[in-house]
Amino acid sequence: MTASRRANRAGLAFVSPTFIVVLVVVVLPIAWTVLLAFQKAKLVDIQGMGLFGNWSLDNFAQVFDSAGFWSSLTTTLLYTAGATLGSVALGLIAALALRKPFRGRGLLRAAMLLPYVAPVVAVAFVWEVALSPQYGVVNDWGRRLFGWDDPIAFLSTREYEVHLLGMHVDIPLALLTVIAFECWRYFPFAFLFILARLQAVPDGLEEAALVDGATISQRFRHILLPQLMPVIALLCVLRFIMTFNKFDDVYLLTGGGAGTNVAAVRVYDFLTARYDVGAAAAQALVLAAALMILLGFYFKLFGNKVQEES
Amino acid sequence: MTRKAALTRAHVEERIFGVLRWCVIAFLAVITLLPFYYMLLLSVKPIDALLLDPGSLLISAKDFTLTTYRDVLRSTDAGGQGFLRFLLNSALVSLGTVVLTLLAAVPGAYAVSRLKFFGHRQVSALFLAVYLFPATLLAVPLFVVFAKMGLSSSLVGLAIVYVAQTVPVSIYMLKNYLVTIPASIEEAAALDGCTRLQTVRKVILPLTLPSLMATGLYVFMIAWNEFLFALLFLAAVPGKWTVSLGLAQLSNGIEVPKTVLMAGSVVLTIPVVLLFFAAERLLTEGLTSGADKS
Q1: What is the mean pLDDT of chain A?
Q2: Domain containing residue B200: CATH number
Q3: Which of A14, A275, B15, B230 could form a disulfide with A43 if both were Cys (CB 3.0 to 4.6 A apart)?
Q4: Does B104 or A4 have the greater pLDDT score?
Q5: Number of domains within chain B
Q6: Does B234 touch chain A (CB under 8 A)?
Q7: Would you say B15 and B32 are in contact if contact means Cβ atoms under 8 Å apart?
Q8: Considering chain B, what percentage of its residues have pLDDT values greater than 90?
Q9: Helix axes A263-273, A277-309, angle to 10 degrees
Q10: In chain B, which among 125-184 make CB contacts under 8 A with chain A?
Q11: Which residue on chain A is closest to B11 by alpha carbon?
């Protein structure tokens, strides 16, 4: 037996346990979701149902026709785009600020990872209490420092009227609040990756620019940013995918109310409120398809940068 | 003249960014530490003190109380919220997930990083693609299958779902570490007469220990913090609730004071945070290794 054939055999032998686990707990369930999406399936019927038969497109018709599908897709996109850009931008700023050593940097760096590692239920709950109109610290300080007349219900106000330079603007307050929460919770993730990349930038590059008289902003623009671009692009993709499918943050903060009904929460509602497995599967599938299309566009536009990175 | 102008611009920028940097550092410290301080503060306050002065960020010695913790930890029979039980459930599920995930991920990561076998590119692509599928997509069929098998309200079922969530990222982390171990070490072991399985067990696994620990910790944290599947599978069986689920369910009840729930949040957060700080360097390196090559 040649060495390459031996390696081939060993490789297949080593990979098969992992492969079987992934097949059973991930690939098969996803395949079954696809089947369920084309069947009329309430949870009570499932017991006696075969895998095949009764194919129809009813579930999809129902999903597309149902009130709030398109608005929830828009909400999801706004939420995802806002949270992705916000968390990556904040992570970049944090990484730049903490790049050079100072006293207590290690401690602060560790503390900054707290929002990311703490359980979502606990932190969502802290935000809820802090933002509460009745006993929240934010409203109390807002009234003391900024003279707010009425307490602001951050998590249950769909539209909040703002007076700015004589203009009245309605801002989607609850949606902005959940986006802020998401930025806060996930900027440490971007921070970690960008800082790791920053520390690998060769010193010589910047020193040469310094000798040539480049200012801080010029050095960032022309030296650091090009070096960081691949990791920033990768982070944007990763955060976009994860936020798009995010369920718990929004569910815990607002329950999907006040204009924050993102698609993942709708899937959950289909599943648990109506036990309509077919419709939930169809909705989840439509989401996955939308995500793939968006990613397809992205890779077409920025494909090279991301490919370099991975 | 131009040289002088450039110098002043550099000077001005240095000043501005020097100040700005400290503002950013202060801002980051406030937004990351204050919420956790607030959580801790409310958990040791009586509810009346909170309602009386919601803006206070300090606590007087006479207000300080630990009854909130007693309430939240005591079993329901004794009039508490039964969080000790929930902590035990969470610990069981999380540890089980760590063991199962590592068992499933280690051989796969080794194969993908070391061996050129037929289809190894496709397999590593598959493991990554799995990462892209939403948890909600998995939730539907798993919900149905588990309902059918009677696993839907058991901790074992939950651990299996968590394995599905954590295997891809574990393979990714382990693989990034394995490729840094020189192949010559394995060749030396092979010359000494080790079979491949022996090489993996006696040479590779001990060398991979830091990465195994980092991956295990990360998996533990994911399992401990998870909420959606716990809610889907266990909401109807209070005896099986994990801490996350227990806290979320209790916050829906109106009769439980917010300060008691804050004590619950602290209890839920402390184990992960302690673990994280104990192994911070290990974890951040395990997570970001590979981020610095482009």
Answers
A1: 82
A2: 1.10.3720.10
A3: A275
A4: B104
A5: 2
A6: no
A7: no
A8: 15
A9: 150
A10: 126-127, 130, 132-145, 147-148, 160-161, 163-164, 167-168, 171
A11: A215
